[in-house]
Amino acid sequence: MRTYSNRKGMRRNSFGLSLLLLACAISFLTAIASAQIYLPPAPPAQPSDYGKVILDNYASKGPGAVVFDHWLHRSKFTCRLCHVDIGFAMQAKATGVSAETNRQGFHCGACHDGKRVFDGKPIFASCADAPGPQCARCHSLGKKGVRKYEYKSFTAALPKSSYGIDWLAAEHTGAVKPVDFLEGITVKQKPMQSREDFTIKAGLAWVHPVVFSHEKHSVWNGCELCHPEIFATAQKSAVQYTMFSNVEGHHCGACHLKVAFPLNNCSMCHPRGPSWAQMK
Amino acid sequence: MTFKRMIVAGLLFTGLAGLVCVSAIAQPNPAVSQPAPAREPWQNEFDSVCSRTQEAMSLSQEELAALIQRCDALLPQIEKLDETRKKVFTVRLRSCRGLYAYVLESKRNEKK
Questions:
Q1: Whole-prediction pTM value?
Q2: Parallel, antiparallel, or unpaired for β A121-122 and A117-118?
Q3: Residue B18 resides in a domain
Q4: Is residue B61 part of a domain?
Q5: ipTM for the complex shown
Q6: Is residue A234 part of a domain?
Q7: Which of A149, A152, A170 shows the shortest CA–CA distance to A161?
Q8: Does some domain include residue A109?
Q9: Which chain B residues contact residue A179 at CB under 8 A?
Q10: Residues B95, A90: contact at Cβ < 8 Å?
Q11: Residues of chain A contacting residue B70, judged by C-beta atoms under 8 Å apart
Q12: Phi and psi at residue A272, in whole multiples of 5°?
């Protein structure tokens, strides 16, 4: 026989159970959402847009925003040359590039001065005093047919990966020979001594370690592009390099989210992939 | 007639091959070249102090500490430059000083 107080108690219990289920559902959905947030994001659909930088600091005053394509410049120069010797910051709007600094021979003007010669041809001058049709070669946002090089034709002969150009193979096979020295700007140095590869243990037990090649990285970056700006401490295991920090643009993500092969190409860093035995 | 054509084709081929060889031999250095501009005294010190980043790992702790000191001594001179040069060279000096400090720290940790 059910009394009034029993029914009240049952109602209270079912209400409590509903609350518990709701809390479980919310925490489950939150966990899924946060897991999705920290999965490596997919790069742009078109590889030609990967590493595209829009410089629009002064777009409203001048000839329009500049479109800078990393794929074009990295086929000719190392990352180190521009980001260390010429002083292009890795963060947006931190360089302070302007028409004036270019005219003074800094930033774009370090190469684009109308005098410097590359492959036997003078490099066109950036931000010349008199505006001309060549301004649109860089100030090209929203303009069609003004750029000299198109991704598809320019990269046709370069080796490809599952996403865009395989720059490692391109450099390794000599399809590109990135220049690392700029007369009058780069300091002459002895060639770098090769450092050994090492492994970094993955945070998850079922993922095989990262194999890091100093040699492959230093061809493009030298030493000072990564240390200490991106990888700040020399004390081993003082910092845990995680996919969380990478996805937020730190550590590996400083380059591998924007220019170097994308983070979602897991096997490039974890060549042995997931450890299936650990997953069982 | 055919013989003449063969001779003309042969001559053209030889000429073309010669041109290719000459252009291959005379190909300019791929490094970006430009006449060297006049240098200021602080630049010589900058070049000297920042010219050892590639070999930083093979330097001794004393050498690294001396390079860091020279970087610190150079900074006030760079801070006197005009705004653009100050910005560019401060960043460059900071990056080479940072590397020397990083390598020095790494060497000290190795010894522990």
A1: 0.80
A2: antiparallel
A3: no
A4: yes
A5: 0.80
A6: no
A7: A170
A8: yes
A9: 30-32
A10: no
A11: none
A12: -95, 0
What CA–CA distance (Å, rounded) separates A229 from A231?
Answer: 6
For residue A195, the chain B residue with the least C-alpha distance is: B57
Q: What dihedral angle (degrees, nearest 10) is formed by the CA atoms of A86, A91, A92, A95? A: -30
Percent of chain A with pLDDT over 90: 54
Tell me: do A10 and A84 sit in the same domain: no
Residue A87, domain member (yes or no): yes
Task: Determine, yes or no, domain membership for B4.
Answer: no
Render pLDDT for A228-272 as a digit per residue (tens, 0 to 9).
Answer: 999 988 777 778 788 889 999 999 999 999 999 999 888 899 988
The answer to whether A104 faces chain B, any CB pair under 8 Å, is: yes
In a domain, B87, yes or no: yes
With respect to residue A120, please indicate whether it lies within any of the assigned structural domains: yes
Q: Please, which contacts does A107-111 make with residues 24 or more away whose CB atoms are closer than 8 Å?
A: A108/A138, A110/A86, A110/A182, A110/A185, A111/A86, A111/A182, A111/B32
**Do A102 and A62 meet the contact criterion of CB atoms below 8 Å apart?**
no
In A, residues 60-89, which contact B (CB 8 Å cutoff)? 84-87, 89
**Chain B residues lying within 8 Å of A89, measured CB to CB:** 91
